[in-house]
Amino acid sequence: MGILFNLLSPEAVLRDHPAQVIDIYPPLGPGLRSIARITGGHIYYEKSTFPMPALEALQISITSGAVERDSENRMVAFLESRAPTRSFQELNERLGLATVELVSNDVNISTDRTRPTSFTCSKTVIFPAGEELLDMNTWEMVRLPGNMLISVSASATGVLEENKFYGTVLNNMVINNAYPITLEGQFCLYVT
């Protein structure tokens, strides 16, 4: 009896879970609260319009994040990522690309594959002259001779199944207002 009381009594529940917060807002989707935690995930790219095989094999780890509604009742997803190489990660962190904010105008995260939920974002980044980047063709570091302006628009479209939000990802980049690159792939996020 003492073991059961220690585990299931009201005092034991309050001791083990002291912060009792009542969530009065609508859930983001089945099995979710109004705020969901992203505990991990990945993005795998499979196609690229730029002739570089390494881009089609690129994978990014999602380490953490959250989804909640903003003041306009839009869903906003915050993602923290880990690049596949140390040099990419360091560069992403210096340029503010290791964290991403995506927005959806959908009311909740869909479970219907015929009507998936879409999150989008756009961002412009300047890689300054002198910045060192990894050349994925030679796997050597190169120094940029001039500024490189990259405009990125991304979308992640998918459905919720139990604790997974998964689907397709599409990134459109334009370098120096002249060189378009499209990356297509798959993503999977674990939400609680």
Description:
The protein is mostly beta strands. It has one domain (26-191). 15% of the residues lie in helices and 50% in strands. The strands form two sheets. It has an eight-stranded antiparallel beta sheet. Strands 6-7 form a two-stranded antiparallel ribbon. Helix 1 crosses helix 2. The mean pLDDT is 92.
Rg: 21 Å
What number of structural domains do the residues give? 1
Number of helices: 4
Topology pattern, helix = H, strand = E? HHEHEEHEEEEEEE
For the sheet with most strands, the description reads: 8 strands, antiparallel
Q: How would you describe the shape? A: elongated
Number of strands: 10
- Proportion of beta-strand residues: over 45%
Strand order, largest beta sheet: 4-3-2-1-10-9-8-5
What is the CA-CA span between the terminal residues? 33 Å
List the helices and strands and how they pair.
Layout: H1 2-8, H2 10-16, E1 36-48, H3 53-56, E2 59-69, E3 75-82, H4 86-95, E4 99-104, E5 117-127, E6 132-135, E7 140-143, E8 148-161, E9 164-175, E10 179-191
Antiparallel strand pairs: 1-2, 1-10, 2-3, 3-4, 5-8, 6-7, 8-9, 9-10
Task: Provide a short characterization of the protein structure.
The protein is mainly beta.
Keywords:
single chain, 192 residues, mainly beta, two-stranded antiparallel sheet, 4 helices, 10 strands, 15% helix
